[in-house]
Amino acid sequence: MKAIDSPESRGTLFRTKAADTLALDVAENMLLMDELRDLISEPAMLLTQKDLNYPHDSIGEPVVREHIAALLSKSWGLQGEHELAADHVLCTPGASAALHLHAQARLSPGDTVMLPAPYWQMFDRIYKLAEVDLCPLPISPGAGSSIDLAQLQQAHADLLRRGERPRMLLLTNPHNPLGLVATSEAMQLLFHWVLEETEMEIISDEIYAHCLFDDSKPFVSALALDISLRYPERVHVVWGLAKDFGLSGWMVGVLMTRSGALHHRITQELARFSPFDGLKN
């Protein structure tokens, strides 16, 4: 058999040849499939002409974004100034698309993205398309986060000394694949240093936010931090339905931002090439 380099292509081929095997190469909640099928088919989906036409809002209809904003504000405890509004929510065809749109809008060839390692393998592809470099930082489990602040500071200084451009810190919280959940204290220190002492922005991939089993380690969204409100142009969050709701095949992602410039760039230019389709609305 011809060698296949792509991990996803290898997984697809394996599932084709061994359809009854439970695949562990992707994070799909196979145990919920029967229950989800029943929930989705009842009541029956009623389609209108609007559902079958081209979507008129590339980032999702306002009512959909309002519901998502309300859901996450409630489940993540975002109150007062932190509460999400529909204008903060940009729907995309999957979380990968949300990350890709952000990269195309904010990064330039030659920039460097800093991130904890190990990490989700699709990050390599997403940021290769943006022609940026990745600077992986070894995980520090005892730091209260996936990244030790002192380690990050040293790596950032090394990049600047070499003439490289560290433009973004990419976090996954809860961490994928290790499941670490950042403490509020560690996040406060990390965000304060990044936002007040560097020019980097932060994007937090929070797609596993509801997949927690230890109440002693509560999830705290980047959107819940007071400092995030002070730097609305530089803090963004990604979420989707694939993990928390077991709906990976629906390809529903969300980019949440209070940045007017990012919102305008995506809605007026980039999202038109990968719109949120009418059936999901």
Structural key phrases:
36% helix; alpha/beta; 7 strands; 281 residues; 10 helices; 7-stranded mixed sheet
Q: In which range does the helix fraction lie?
A: 25-40%
Number of helices: 10
Enumerate the strands of the largest sheet in spatial order, edge to edge or round the barrel. Answer: 1-7-6-5-4-2-3
Q: What structural class should be given to the helix and strand makeup? A: alpha/beta
> Unreliable runs, pLDDT <50, ≥5 residues?
none
Q: Which descriptor suits the 3D outline?
A: globular
Structural commentary:
With 281 residues, the protein is of the alpha/beta class. The chain is built from ten helices and seven strands. It has helices spanning 7-17, 33-41, 49-52, 62-75, 95-106, 122-129, 149-161, 184-197, 226-230, 260-270, and strands spanning 89-92, 111-117, 133-138, 165-172, 201-205, 235-240, 253-257. A seven-stranded mixed β-sheet has the order 1-7-6-5-4-2-3, sandwiched between helices. Helix 6 links the parallel strand 2 and strand 3. Helix 5 (95-106) packs across helix 10 (260-270). It is globular, with a radius of gyration of 19 Å. The mean pLDDT is 87.
